[in-house]
Amino acid sequence: VSEPKVAISSIPYVNGKVESKVLRQGDYDIPIFTEDFLDHNKVVDSELRTLRKSNIDYEQQNSVLEKHVENMENGILKLDSETSNLESRNAVLESYLLKLRTTLANALQGLPLSSDCAGATVDNIDQYLENLHQMADSSTQGHTLNKAKDIIRKLDLQNLTL
Question: Does Nucleus count among this protein's keywords (predicted)?
Answer without folding.
Answer: yes
